[in-house]
Amino acid sequence: MSEEDGGISQFSHLSYIEKNGEVNGLLSNQILQRTINEIGDIIECNCSIWNTDGVMLAAVGNEKPAVKKAVCSFLKELEVTGVSEEHLDECYGLFPVYDDDELTYIFVIEHNNEIDVHTSGRLSVCQLESLLRSGSERLDRNRFIQNLLLDNLLLVDIYNQAKKLGITVEQRRVVYLIEPKNPDDTIVLDMIRGIYSSGTGDFVTAVDEGHIILIKSLDSTDDYDTIRSTADMLVNAITTEAMVNVRLSFGTIIPELKEVSQSYKEAGMALDVGRIFYPERNILSYRELGIGRLIHQLPVSLCEMFLEEVFAGNTVDQFDEETLSTVDKFFENIKIVKENNPDIEINAGIESDFSYDEEFKEKEIKILKSYPFDYIIGSVHGMEKVNYINYLQANIDMIKTYPINIVGHLKLRKEYEQYKEKIEEIVKLATEKNLMFDINTSDRSRWNIQQLEYMLNLFKKYGTRYTVGSDAHSIDEIGYHIKEEYIKINKILNQTEKDIEYTVVSRGTEKAGSKGYIGITKIENNKRLLVLAKHFDKYIDTYKDSFEISAKYSIENIAISRFELMGAITIKPILNIIKDNILIIGLGNIGFTAMLYLLENNYKNISIITNKIEKYQTEAINRLNKEYNSNIKFVDNYDFDYDTYIEATGCSEVIKSIVETAPNLSKIILLGVPREEKYLINPLDINRKNLMFIGGHELNGHTIEERRKIFEELLKINSKKDLISFVNVYHVQEDIIEKILEHKENFIEVIKYDL
Hints:
Layout: H1 10-19, H2 29-43, E1 47-50, E2 56-60, H3 65-81, E3 87-88, E4 92-99, E5 102-110, H4 117-149, H5 155-165, E6 173-180, H6 186-195, E7 203-208, E8 211-217, H7 224-241, E9 246-250, H8 260-277, E10 283-285, H9 292-295, H10 300-311, H11 321-340, E11 349-353, H12 358-370, E12 375-379, H13 388-401, E13 406-407, H14 420-432, E14 436-440, H15 449-462, E15 465-469, H16 482-493, E16 498-505, E17 515-521, E18 527-534, E19 539-540, E20 547-550, H17 555-571, E21 582-585, H18 589-600, E22 605-609, H19 615-628, E23 631-634, E24 644-647, H20 652-661, E25 667-670, H21 683-689, E26 692-695, H22 704-718, E27 727-731, H23 734-742, E28 748-752
Parallel strand pairs: 9-10, 11-12, 12-13, 13-14, 14-15, 21-22, 21-24, 22-23, 24-25, 25-26, 27-28
Antiparallel strand pairs: 1-2, 1-5, 3-4, 4-5, 6-8, 6-9, 7-8, 16-17, 16-19, 16-28, 17-18, 18-20
Helix pairs in contact: 4-5, 13-14, 15-16, 17-18, 17-22
């Protein structure tokens, strides 16, 4: 196809790059205004950024003739003297901003009596110069990718620049070309950049106004089915999330960086050919262009004449006869094989991809109902990578509308526990419609052991049927991982229930029925297990993340160490930066055991704020001061400046008070779990005071191995201590339980069941 007939010329590419200002590397006015607003909020005075022509680019406050005059005078002085230092007078502070020794901006602060102009100006210049360096680095990489796509680089330059920019040369890649219906839809570019960030080995750029380019890195196992699935995901995501219609094309897989331009040209050809031959398609593959690839060089008018002559005005997509003929032949062959092999059971199955395109959906459902399939697998592809909630909802819609027998390869995120309600809705609905679930053994959709156990428990709860399949995309993949998946399933299903002998009462959560490491099983084979359980569970049938504990350790030691783990796993990595000047807010289980951990690590000066000082608390503190030669004391306010604050109440009001009263550079460790819906922290306070915030949730961000290791360390340390006075062990009685829930008599409570 010639350039006159709609092809994209090299000149138009270069014009776009120049027009969008990417060559000079300057920051956009939008970035400058956002930056100056942030600076103005911090230094609390009027300030502005000017270019080297004396034009104001961004400002807090209005442009003033006097400021412009001062800037122009300063620029002349710099030009004459060549001096690069700032200029300060009684009215203004003017600071030059350089990008690689080239004067780029002038930063101006208008004086007030409350700020150090020199310090504020220098810090602001540092921020602007950092932004320029960052923008320059991004620009260098983007310019390299654009020149690579346009074949503007010699082979030696490709290798040298790629090495300089840290881009892998020998990497399988493919180029996607995305064409929004409206070229002005910048939301699509932003969305693609959000999905494929620059640190992943993928690149997102644009070399003309109407197209977005995604250079996608591939794993060694990725094939054209994977590439097509990614294309489906992108189109679905853009359509459903951004509400923008797009056409997408992709080229062939290339093994090295130097061949990226080839895949890009192929993707461009696919779009050009698709406009004529496949106007109804929104996804086009270079490998599937058929006859269009042979005649794409012809002018559009000749292509249209060819279509009119050969197809009488119909497009290729309007012919379903080939598809239907294939299905007919499929059933015909099955019939022949059955007749010749009566002892072999052969079933006819198909996987149907769920679509929100109503016209396509209607056609697909009609075909599915028209043929005697023994089973139909319904699957949702792609959406899980963009919007997981929408992906789960699509599975629900598919179950409600498609004539399927099996729900195919339901994908679970690592953080699937956040979506349990929606996942359970899917399982319940599928069970009500007598559908089966596919336990997929392929590496594309395989559940890990925790996910598998979770889903099997759901199936058990609702009486849901399931099948195990390899989701083979080639002959070599048939039966892949089937055997080992059955072994895992049998292991999970054959777990025997274990009796819980003790439950540890964790204050503040026992009424909510929270689940945590609070169940202690009876001794078997000289061992106990600390298991994830709910309060007052008396047995457990799954104990996948449990801690093994030698029977030699006392219940008091296990209880203390269990709560000490919450603080230890957070505090241990930062012991080297915590000074011996600490305030603990809250002396419940978590606050108390955090204090024990600090004492064990030679911290002596610890202050405590608690609502009400009980007698047993005072006795405990007196005892610990003697044992550790420490200076633990109760205080009733935040008046003293502390190095480290350990929040163990979970109260947002308390956290607010800490942020407001804490001195600059202090550390705040959140061991309590704030559960209020309204949070009161001002992020600006954190920023201005350079506070270090450290979250301390035990279960998130730490592997089971990390938790086990620290727990075992604590057990050994605490085995040398007298812990009985810190723990109350009750035999289970309803009145005792009620008493514990209403009033705490000691630091940690343990309930023993009579087994």
